[in-house]
């Protein structure tokens, strides 16, 4: 009788565990919120492994002050990225719902400091010089790179060096 009971226990125990579901777990330290961008959006994200639970896990972000809500799905690796309308100092409520219906709530705050975009690439400054040349004098030569030498000039130079004993 004992082996039969052990067999039933091992057969049905995984089914009971699946029916009970797996709690959604969120590593709150891994969740980050970007500053507000010029379009009034923030990006809430987490790296792979930050959200664990029965896949697929749905995510809903809600900002009551901005009267905004968006929904998405956590990636299979446990990471996510979602954008929502927000202002500095707003609170965003995140709700994670696993495939088994288990929920986990998390509140995140938007930074007080708005996103400052770096200035556009500075244009290169061009300097010009004015040179006065006395009459009858030739104009100074420009500082351009010399034209490349032809192959025949290079070969004749090598022959001259070879004749002089520099190159063997």
Structure commentary:
The protein is α+β, with helices and mostly antiparallel strands and 168 residues long. It has a domain of 87 residues: Immunoglobulins (Immunoglobulin-like). It is built from 2 helices and 9 strands. Strands 6-5-8-9 form a 4-stranded antiparallel beta sheet, with no helix packed on it. A hairpin with a 7-residue loop joins strand 2 and strand 3. The longest helix has 19 residues. The chain is elongated, with a radius of gyration of 36 Å. 14% of the residues are buried. About 9% of the residues have low confidence.
Features:
Immunoglobulin-like; alpha+beta; three-stranded antiparallel beta sheet; 9 strands; 2 helices; single chain; four-stranded antiparallel beta sheet; 168 residues
Principal-axis shape: elongated
Helix and strand run: HEEEEEEEEEH
Average of the residue pLDDT scores: 77
CATH uppermost class of the domain at 23-109: Mainly Beta
**Tally the helices: what do you get?**
2
Question: Gyration radius, to the nearest Å?
Answer: 36 Å
CATH architect. name of the domain at 23-109: Sandwich
Low-confidence stretches: 4-10, 12-19
């Amino acid at each position: 009788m004992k082996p039969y009971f052990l067999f039933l226990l091992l057969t049905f125990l995984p089914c009971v565990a699946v029916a009970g579901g797996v709690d959604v777990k969120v590593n709150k330290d891994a969740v980050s919120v970007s500053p507000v961008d010029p379009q009034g959006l923030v990006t809430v994200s987490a790296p792979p492994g930050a959200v664990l639970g029965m896949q697929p896990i749905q995510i809903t972000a809600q900002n009551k002050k901005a009267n905004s809500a968006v929904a998405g799905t956590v990636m299979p690796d446990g990471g996510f990225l979602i954008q929502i309308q927000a202002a500095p100092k707003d609170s965003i409520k995140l709700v994670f719902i696993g495939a088994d219906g288990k929920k986990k709530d998390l509140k995140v705050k938007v930074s007080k400091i708005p996103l400052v975009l770096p200035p556009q690439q500075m244009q290169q400054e061009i300097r010009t010089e004015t040179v006065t040349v006395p009459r009858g004098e030739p104009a100074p030569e420009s500082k351009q790179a010399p034209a490349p030498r032809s192959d025949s000039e290079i070969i004749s130079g090598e022959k001259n060096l070879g004749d002089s004993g520099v190159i063997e």
